[in-house]
Amino acid sequence: MDTKATTVEDYILSFPTEVQERLQLLRQLIKENTPEAMESISYGMPAYKLNNKPLVYFAGYSKHIGLYATPTGHKQFKDELSVYKQGKGSVQFPLNQPLPMDLIARIVQFRVQENRK
């Protein structure tokens, strides 16, 4: 979705209720695993940085939620992510399936460890 939101809250509120709920779950998961991460809007989507380095991004769409855990998050979990549609540096979680919260948490934790090095 093309949005001009300046806060993550406004970004999430710009989506239909079903998508908002998933985006809120994802936001909460990231914050629980990295409470010290800086939250902002970057590239038109929610972005999280740790130690001034990108951690993860996410975005809502009409049929999926996109997660961007570049540069290494997708590579590290390539086998588990192979069941999802992927693009360069992104993975798509369809709205007609539950979000794989455990997998996403492990990706975020992996990226946290990388950024702390």
Describe it for me?
The protein has 117 residues and is of the alpha+beta class. It has one domain (8-116): Aspartate Aminotransferase, domain 1, CATH 3.90.1150. It contains five helices and six strands, in the order H-H-E-E-E-E-H-H-E-E-H. The longest helix has 17 residues, at 17-33. The mean pLDDT is 93.
Share of β-strand residues: 25-35%
Which secondary-structure class do the elements indicate? alpha+beta
Unreliable parts: none
- The 3D shape can be described as globular
Order of helices and strands: HHEEEEHHEEH
Instruction: Tell me the distance between the termini.
Output: 34 Å
Give the quaternary arrangement of the chains: single chain
Q: Major sheet, described briefly?
A: 6 strands, antiparallel
Q: Which strand order do you get reading across the main beta sheet?
A: 1-2-3-4-6-5
Report the mean per-residue pLDDT as an integer: 93
The CATH architecture name reads: Alpha-Beta Complex
The number of distinct structural domains comes to 1
Counted by DSSP, the helix tally is 5
CATH topology: Aspartate Aminotransferase, domain 1
Please identify the top-level CATH class: Alpha Beta
Q: What is the CA-atom radius of gyration, in angstroms?
A: 13 Å
**Total number of strands:** 6
